[in-house]
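The instructor's notes for this session suggest beginning with a concrete chain rather than abstract definitions. Hand out the sequence below and ask the class to guess, before any prediction is shown, which regions might be ordered.
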Amino acid sequence: MPPFAAQQSLFRAYDIRGVNQYFTSSFIHALGDAFATLYNAQNGQPTQNINANASNASTSVDTKQNVVVVGYDMRIGSEAIALMLSTVLAQQGLRVIQLGLVTTPMMAFWAAQYQGHGIVVTASHSAKDILGIKC
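After discussion, reveal the predicted structure:
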C-alpha cells in the first residue's frame, strides 16, 4: 500500500479535508514539505534540507516572497496542525508569520500581502470532527 493511501480521499478541489484521525503528524509533515517545495519553487529558491537548524534557515533572503502566513480556526486540533506546518515551513527556509486564530477571509487578505503564500487550518462549515487545510 502506498504511503498515505488513506489520506488520498482528503484531497478536494479547493482544500484538504476529512476526519481528524487521518491528520497524523507524519501526514502533516509531508504536507508541510510539499507546501515548502511549492512556495520555494514559485520564489525561484531551492528547498533547504529539512534537517537544517533555524539559524541556517534564516540565511535566505528576507523578502515578501519568502513569507508564508499561517492561521487556524477554533476546532480542536487546528492550532497544533498550524504549529506543525509552521515548523516544517521554517525548517525549509521560509519565514512564517503565525496569524493565530483567524477567519479564512482574513488569512486570504494577509496572504495577498505576501505573494499569496498562506495556509489556514480550517474545515469551514463541516462537522466538528472534520479537519481541513486551505492554501
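Then share the key points. The mean pLDDT is 85. The two ends are 28 Å apart (CA to CA).
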